Amino acid sequence: MAQHYNLEQQEQLATLKAFWDKWGTPIAIVAFALAIGLAGWNGWRYWQGRQAAQAAILLDQLNVSAASNNRTAAEQNFTVLRNQYAKTAQASQAGLRLAKFQAEQKEWDAALETLQWVSSQSRDVGLRALAVLHSSAILMEQDKPDAALSALQQYSFPAEFHALRDDRIGDILQQQGKTAEAVAAYQQAHRALTDTSAYRPLVEFKLQALGQAPTPSSTSASGTLQR
């Protein structure tokens, strides 16, 4: 019985050896690759977290600089963020904050340049959309309604920004003296907003100021206004 067990064990060892001779190297390579991949993933997550933390510090510094009207320091903070931490959300947030500060100083071209960077470089679709909306507001301040309207119509806004886009289009059309078209834009913006939206009463006020009341529609609330 013991001799039979030894023979069986030897057969198993021989089979295992043959299997390992054939597949041992590929298995070892795969295992090594998985280990390297896991280490790389953990390293990348650590690096990403560190980037975000460092960018957050610079964003805080930019906010302090802007609050104290130190434009030079604020722009320097943003330059570092843009050059070294461009892929972080904080860099895009900093761009929006700096552009607001620049606009308050009536540095329109500088603000537009900053917003252009955010709209073209940010990974966050919401921040990109906000940059385009802010750009259109600055163009309106510069009395460039056609350019403001073009900026809005050429950008593909996510659905959740359609109401803000159409409301801004209404503002531009009203600035151009196109009251009927402005009303249509406001109506579309109103339909895209929910009953609980804090922004909806403002759109209603704009309609009422033009002698209009909000009207329901069977069309999709997120449709694009055609011109």
TrEMBL record:
Database matches in InterPro entries: SecYEG/CpoB_TPR, TPR-like_helical_dom_sf, YfgM
Record has Translocase as a keyword: no
UniProtKB keywords: Cell membrane, Chaperone, Membrane, Transmembrane, Transmembrane helix
The keyword Chaperone belongs to this UniProt entry's keyword annotation: yes
GO MF, one annotated term: protein-containing complex binding
Domain of life (superkingdom): Bacteria
Protein's membrane topology: Single-pass type II membrane protein
Localisation: Cell membrane
Transmembrane segments: 23-41
Domain Ancillary SecYEG translocon subunit/Cell division coordinator CpoB TPR: 17-212
Cellular component annotations (GO), alphabetically ordered: plasma membrane
Protein family per UniProt: Belongs to the YfgM family.
PANTHER family: ANCILLARY SECYEG TRANSLOCON SUBUNIT, UPF0070 PROTEIN YFGM
Protein name: Ancillary SecYEG translocon subunit
UniProt organism field: Lampropedia hyalina DSM 16112
